[in-house]
Amino acid sequence: MTMNDFPPGIVLILGAFLLPFVGRSARSVLILGLPLLTLGLVWSLPDGSSAIVPIFDYQLVFLRSDALSRVFATIFSIMTFAGGLYALNQKRVLELVAVFVYAGSAIGAVFSGDLISLFIFWELMALASTVVVLSVGSNLCYRVSMRYFMVHMFGGTLLLVGILAHIMDTGTAAFSAMEPNSFGTIFILAGFLINAAAPPLSAWLSDSYPEASYSGTVFLSAFTTKTAVYVLLRGFPGAEILIFIGIFMIFYGIIYALLENDMRRILAYSIVNQVGFMVTGIGIGTEMALNGVAAHAFTHIIYKALLLMSAGAVLYMTGKRKCSDLGGLFQSMPLTTICGIIGALSISSFPLTSGFISKSMIGQAAADSNLMIVWFLLLAASAGVFLHAGIKFPWFVFFQKDSGLRPPDPPWNMRLAMILFSVLCIGLGVWPEFLYNMLPYPVAYEPYTVPHVVNMLQLLMFSGFAFFLMLPLMKRTLTITLDFDWFYRRLMPTALKNAFSLIWKADHGLRHMFMVRLDMCLDFVSRRNGCISSLVSRTYPAGSMVMWVAAILAAYLVLSFFAY
Amino acid sequence: MNETEQKHWLVRPKTIRQLWYGGFVLLALLVLADFFVHPHASFQIDGTFGFYSWYGLLTCVGMVLFAKALGIFLKRKDTYYDDE
What we know:
The complex is a heterodimer.
Chain A: H1 8-16, H2 24-44, E1 48-55, E2 58-65, H3 67-86, H4 93-111, H5 115-134, H6 139-170, H7 183-195, H8 203-208, H9 216-235, H10 241-259, H11 263-284, H12 287-318, H13 334-347, H14 354-368, H15 372-398, H16 412-430, H17 433-436, H18 450-469, E3 479-481, H19 485-532, H20 542-563
Antiparallel strand pairs in A: 1-2
Helix pairs in contact in A: 1-2, 1-4, 2-3, 3-4, 3-9, 3-12, 3-16, 4-5, 4-9, 5-6, 5-9, 6-7, 7-9, 9-11, 9-12, 10-11, 10-15, 11-12, 11-14, 11-15, 12-13, 12-14, 12-16, 13-15, 13-16, 14-15, 14-16, 15-18
Chain B: H1 3-6, H2 13-32, H3 51-74, E1 75-77
């Protein structure tokens, strides 16, 4: 294996295990250097498949390098660098080890050219991301991480069953475009969709991500769902069902985020919303749509991480996470506020930000394919994104009422990471060619036309107007909103608890009844015996028994003398 | 020095009032821009006057109301799962 066919993800996975054994400054060098080395490797790979390992009758392809895998591996590497910079002051080394293994296995999954090696990295990601949540160390996080782990193990099992069935069907483990029309491919699709936070099992995301540490959540937001977007993009382009699933996810994210009070859970719901745009685009399946999905995944990772960095900075400096406890922070955290607003404008796809040049490609693809209803829904959703993430998050965290909190901006490394991603958000919005040149298909799309800019501004400003008009209805309350996880967190445990308490009661009653009957029987038998034969059934003391045994043995001894 | 003056300039009632006026002017200008901008409509109605403005406003009001209605059934105190 030369440097030319060394899987870049392995650098991060192996490097992760060096982190606990080196000093603080060497660790900082590794945290910043390893992602850059990975990025360099990603870009030095020639197109084509390499690092092929034969196993039984199949070939594991650890490196399939083409435009699509490169664009995802690039953003994953950049994300690891900026997230590492943001997490430099994270004291829990276990979390840092876990995020590096997590990022490395996500890059490994993106480069996998076959389903078996994909599955290996897929499961490694599930394991590492569980440790990211677990590393917080509280009892709450233990339970949350176990719920997270169970859902992902279930998804992994579906995927494994699907992969095995697919290999039996086709005789090859190669990972190429499929259609969900056989047992195997349907299971593979279901396994992919669970990691994309598709319904019904989508609650794992909003349940777990807000419970990780201030830096852990930044990493979590990037890899699992976007790896799922990548494999859907590679495996099921144009699968029509994805349009319906995607549209559902878009509106689920908006509605739940509107009801939410925890600032990082608002952003978690908005991940589902944004991934919904991508899933819809994959379902549309034209070159324009698929380009749009890849571009949107790229820009989304940056602005979502930026939003979670600003939320993480607030959490780090105040220890508070509920909108109802926050507000007025712009006065003492100006940099965090500005970076948070840049992230919020980007997710809302304001002109001159990264979201504008990526999301609009998916909408354009819907129009080009004459999907009228989808187009109108996507347009409403674009307005809704501004409503639930673009205004709601910055408004309730940094403005609204004055909470009286006056924390300063966070330490230099966290500020620097936020500035870096803010610059990328605006840079990509101003110079889209940089991203367009990386996309899998040639781009014939011009985002900056006068009507497009004006129409987008009209849509967004009136969405903002609706927000302030409806502000009395948006008042934050100390509530959560029930989700599908209620079934496995509340209904099933309660039902099982009740069922078992019934079973224990019945069991206790039956045993008691049986004992009473048995006593009665014995009583009956002994009384009968006492009447019939007082001789046979009489009780003798043990001493007399021993005496008689001794007598028999003595008689036996005496008789044995006569026998010789 | 009264209380109003101690506040950050951005949250003084006067500034907020000016922001509202500024916002209304901006909204009006954006609607009027439709006289000069002729988009390439994909589905007829999206090329009509003021479409993006009323569509953005109405869908957002609709989504907030829908969320509110759903909240009646699905909202619980945030201590709901604490006894797990």
